[in-house]
Amino acid sequence: MPLNLTEEQILQLAPDDSSIKAGKGLATLGKWVLRECSERAVWGHCQGSGKNPYQTVIDLNDIAFKCSCPSRKFPCKHGLGLLLLYARQPEQFKRAEEPDWVTAWLAKRTEKAEKKEQKAKSEAPVDEAAQAKRQEKRHRKVLEGISDLEVWMKDLVRNGFLNVPERIYTLFDNMARRMVDAQAPGLAGRLRAMQGIDFDTESWKSDLTESMGKLYLLMQGYRNIDTLPDEWKDEIRTQIGYPQSKDNVLAGAPVADSWLVLHKQSRKVNDINTDIYWFYGKRSALFAKYLSFTVAGTFSTENWIPGSAYEGALCFYNGTGTCRRALFRESVLLEESFVPDCSTDLKLAAAVYRQAMIANPFSEEVPLLVNDVTVVRNGKGYSLLDNAGQAVPVRMPEETYIDILAITGGNPFASLVLVNGDIWELKSIWYNKVYHTWRDERN
After folding, report:
1. Domain extents for the chain?
2. CA 111/CA 106 separation, integer angstroms
3. Which of 80, 195, 325, 399 has the fewest C-beta atoms lying within 10 Å of its C-beta?
4. Number of other residues whose CB lies within 10 A of the CB of residue 414
C-alpha cells in the first residue's frame, strides 16, 4: 500500500522531541536487518543492543504501531524510524507474506474493533426511574453551586479588579474546586481559564470582564434551561459539564464525507492527557472537533494524522455551533489529501467568526480558513496580511515564523487559525498544496 504521508505528518505522531530525533536516526537502511511489507502492513527487524533484534510492525490502513522493545513511549523510536524509512524508500521493502506475529497482531486489532462496534450497538436496559433521580440530585447540586458562584462574582465586581493579579493563585482555584464539588466541571474549567489570563498585559481587565460576562450568561442559561430549545438545552448542559453518552452520539444521524485533519493539539492536566483534533469535511464544508483522553502511562488508540484525509462517517454531539464535537463510526485513511475551501481574505474570515459567535457565544478556539495571506512582523509580534492590505495580529512562536518564511519565501499561503476573541493563533498552512503544521502542546 503506498504511503502518501509527508515526513512532517509522520513526526506529528511522535510523543516528544527526543523521539523525533531518535526516530530520524533509525530511518536508515543500515539499521534494519529485515524490511518487508504487505497490502495492509509494514514490518521490520531493528538490531538493538541485545542479542535479538526488535520486531516492529505498523498497520497501514489505520496507522498504529507495535514493537517488542521495552520503551514506554508510543509510538517508540523504532516505529517512527520504520515509518519514516517506508515513506522515503518504499521500494526498499520486500513484498512478502505476513509472518505469524504480524498476522496475530492485525487480527487482534480487528477483533478489538469489532467488539467495540458490537458494544456500541448493544442496548443495555436502563433503569429510567433511578436515572431520573440521579439527574435531579445533580441538578440541585449544580443550582446550589451556581448560587455560590453568583455571590462570589458579585463580591468580586463590587470590590473591583485592581487586586485580582495579586490573588490569582487562590481566588479562582478555590471557587473552581467548589464547582467541581457541585458537579459542574465546565464552570470550574472557565474559572481556571480566567486564572490563566496574562495579567501582565494591558488587556487583562477587558479579558477578565468578557470571561466573567460569558460565565454569568452560562449560569443564567442553566437556571432557565427549561425554557430553551432542545439544541440549546443540550449545549448548556454540555457547557456546564454534563457528559453525553457515546452510544447515544453514535446512534445519531452520521455525516459521511472525506474528513481532513486540520490540526492536533495536546494538553495535559494533572494525569489526564487530551488530544484535540480539528476536522473539515470536503463535501459538507462542516467543521468537527474530536477529543481523545488517556491517563498517564497509557496510550491513545487514535492516531489521526494532521494533513491527512479520512473517508468516514462522523456523528455529532447534540448542541449548537459551527464546530461541534463528534465521533467516528468508521474511517479509512485516504491515499490523497486535499486543500480545504478557504475565505478569500481576512475580512470574510472575520465575518465567518462573527457568525460562529452568533450561533454559539460560548464557542472557543473557532477554526477559520483563510487563503492568500502572508505573515509579517508587527513590532514584537506578528500579523497576517492579505492581498487587500488588511492585517490581523496573530500569535505564533518565533520558530514558527522562521519556518513559514523558509517554506514560503514570503509568498502567500492558505492557513488555519484558531480564534478566541481578539486572539488569532496560526496553526497550519498549505503552500503549493502541501500541508505544514507545528507541534502544539499545552499544560
Report:
1. 7-116, 130-240, 246-333, 346-442
2. 9
3. 399
4. 20
The pTM for the full model equals 0.79
Cell of 376: 509579517
CA distance 152 to 171: 10
Find the radius of gyration of the CA atoms of the chain.
24
- What distance in Å separates the CA atoms of residue 186 and residue 179, rounded to the nearest whole number? 8
Residue 253 contacts residue 317 (beta carbons within 8 Å): no
Burial of 413 (0-12, 13-18, 19+ CB in 10 A): buried
Per DSSP bridges, beta strands 423-431 and 434-437 are antiparallel
**For each of the chain's 443 residues, which pLDDT tens digit applies?**
556 677 888 888 888 889 999 999 999 999 999 999 999 899 999 987 778 899 999 998 878 899 999 888 888 999 999 999 999 999 999 999 999 999 999 998 888 776 666 665 555 566 778 878 999 999 999 999 999 999 999 999 999 998 999 988 889 999 999 999 999 999 999 999 999 898 988 889 999 999 999 999 999 999 999 999 999 999 999 999 999 999 899 999 999 999 999 999 988 776 778 889 999 999 999 999 999 887 655 556 677 889 999 999 999 999 999 999 999 998 888 989 999 999 999 999 999 999 999 999 999 999 999 999 999 998 889 999 999 999 999 999 999 999 999 999 999 999 999 999 888 999 999 999 999 999 888 76
Determine phi and psi for 65, rounding to 5 degrees.
-130, 150
Closest by CA position to 154, among listed 169, 185, 175: 175
Give me the amino acid identity at 272: I
Peptide bond into 75 cis (omega under 30): yes
| Helix H or strand E encompassing 114 | helix 100-121
Question: Which residue, 80, 83, 93, is CA-closest to 37?
Answer: 93
